[in-house]
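Quick illustration for those who missed Monday's session on complexes.
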Amino acid sequence: MMGVLGSSSSSLAITVVLGLILNAVVCYGGTSSNYSRTAFPTYNNTDMPVDSEAFYVPPGINSPQQVHITQGDHVGTAIIVSWITPTAPGSNIVLYWSTQENGTKIQLAEATIGAYRYYNYTSGFIHHANISNLQFNTKYYYQLGEGQYARTFWFVTPPAPGPDVPYTFGLIGDLGQTYNSNGALAHFQLDPLNGQTVLYLGDLSYADNYPFHDNVRWDTWGRFVERSAAYQPWIWTVGNHEVDWAPELGEPVPFVPYSHRYHTPYEAAGSTAPFWYSIKRGPAYIIVMAAYSAFGYSTPQYSWFNQEVLKVNRTETPWLIVLMHPPWYNSYHSHYMEGETMRGVYETTFVQNKVDIVFAGHVHAYERSIRVSNILYNITNGLCTPMKNLSAPVYFTIGDGGNEEGLSNAMYFPQPYYSASREASFGHGILDIKNRTHAYFAWHRNEDGYDVISDSLWLTNRYWYPTDDSN
Ligand SMILES: [Fe+2]
Ligand SMILES: [Fe+2]
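Prediction with fe (ii) ion bound:
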């Protein structure tokens, strides 16, 4: 008996030692949060009902609704105001005035009015107005609609592009329209460091998950985000749930609802399609990439990107940020390796041009990489391992707005080398750019009703501080 016990103890000891060695050799990744969301009845993955108060319907049957704004030019002196009137075209006029003239100089801009059909759905009247020649760093009010049902909103233009103008961006992705989505948006709006502009990482309404891609859910989503998107620009990235390609429904053209509802300033960026474009905003040069449009060699997007990235003047806009939907460095089971094709085409250019940060969504969880690249492979050399690279970006996945598909909580173990931090929770991010060298990033978890910072770090600029190894 003693012999058996002794043998068993020895085996256990060997196993423990081997385990420790293997752990030291193999588990070289960062941290995997063991935080587990508890089920809580009012914070769940169910879409809010169509008549929810979160989908604000203004009084007046034809009042402007689903109001949202985005940048309207390349530098931040224009804004696109978009809204929908449900039953009739109504006024196409935007009245606007700045606080600098004490509201005495009221100007107007005219909107285009359009509509679309999708299967058995007919949209309301979709208005888009581009208000241009605005002053930098100025608060403007704008008014839509007529008479007693006119609605007034406001926005603040960014400072002129410059290397040391502080600016704060919110990061939201894969929001959807569940109770969790409502919590994530509320936490973002209540954050004391409220992002001045939202960088939205794709997958908006998830209407395509409904029978016949029920476009009523595009309307409810537009009403849901109005409380933020009418007051601060949301910079749009296209996700897979925006494709809405359904030839079986007689809808063979992709992106019909999205492209009618959400405009971007792509022409000002020399792009030939609204899905890939760039803007300057304060200290940042932001390039938006389209993973669900052609992006390979010789495509319009490829040609545009390779010219665009060379235009970035880091003395004017030191922070080079890229937005895309599917992440390149992902260690969740969900959408694993989906970014590989785009990574293979573009990663070398990212490193050569010292992209600072890449924000992606798509995976419904949070993840942050080390500065990593995998650009040595040439088919014959076998060099296909991600390696630390101080000229490479930090990759963030923030696909955790809270949509009805739920969390991506299955992770690969051991945590890969490139993964610095990951957590399967819903939440939002804030990027607080201080000056040309430093920015502070924080990711906020929705801990049921509470907003808890779960990951944060200082990021140093790759152009101005290229040798800093702290992030
Ligand atoms: Fe997605
Ligand atoms: Fe998604």
